[in-house]
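QA checklist item 7 of 12: single-chain prediction sanity check.
[x] sequence parsed
[x] length recorded as 289
[x] structure emitted
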Amino acid sequence: MVGTTKIWLTGANGQLARAILKECKNQPEKYTILTTDKDVDITDMEEISKYAITTRPDIIINCAGITDIAACEQNVVMAYKVNALGARNMSAAARMVDAKIIHISTDDVFSGDRKEALMEFDTAVPTSVYGKSKLAGEMLVRELNPKHLVIRSSWAYGDGDNYVSRLLERIHAGETVEAANDQISTPTSMDTLAKCILVLMESKEYGICHVSCEGSCSRYEFAKKVLELTGDDTTMIKPILSENISDGWQRPKYSVLENLMLKMTELYQMPRWEDDLEQYLESRGMKHE
C-alpha cells in the first residue's frame, strides 16, 4: 500500500477508540485517522455510504455501540438499531470501498453457563438484550463483508467511565462497595486491547478473534487487586452473590475468553490481567509506591 493507511474510527469519543487513536498518533508516518462519533450516524446507511465513498478508508474500526446494559434492556429497538443495524451499515460501507472492517464485540455474547474458557469456535448464546444485539451485529458484519475481524474482549477498562473509575470514585468518597464473587472473567485494559487490534489490523487475518488478558478472577478479586495497587483500604470491598446485585442477572457468570486465534497465529501475546492492571495504573500515576 502506497502512503499511509487510512483508518476510519467510529465511536471516536469512546474509551477504546481514544486508546487506538493514541497508539496511531505515535506512528504518524503509518496512519491517517478519520474519526467520527455523533457527527456521522452509523444507523443511517445513506450517510455512512456517502462518507465511505468520499473518504475511501483502507480500514474501518467500528467502536460505536450502546454498551449500557440497563439502557439496552429498557430500549430494545435502540439497542438493535445501534449494535446490529449500525454494525451492518459499517460492514456494507467497508465492502463498498473494499476496506477491511474490524468490529468490536463482547464476552456478553456467551451465556456464562459453562465453567471453562470460551474459544472463538464455541457457540454464542447470549441472555441479555445487550449480548443478543451485539451477536446480531457480529453476524451481519460477517455476512456482508468477507474482509472482517470481529474482536471480542472482556471486562475492558480505560480512561473514562468504567468499573475501575467508578470503584475508585466510590471508595474515595468513603463508601463500602459490594462486588460479585461469583462472576468470573478477565479484566483487560483498553491500552493493551488497542495495541493488539493494531497488530491484527496489519495482518492478513480474518474472522472472530478473542483478545483478553490471560488468567481470570471474580469481580471481588478484581476490585480488591485494584485497591491493593492504589494503596486503598481493601476491607471496603465486600463480596456478594451476583443475584443480590440489581443488574447481576444480566451479566454472564463465567465469561473467560480463550485467545485461541492469537495463540495459533502467534501474532500477539496478551499479558496476565494482574500485570496489565499494574501497568495501566502506573502509567497514570495511580499505583501506590
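[x] summary fact logged: The two ends are 46 Å apart (CA to CA).
[ ] second reviewer sign-off
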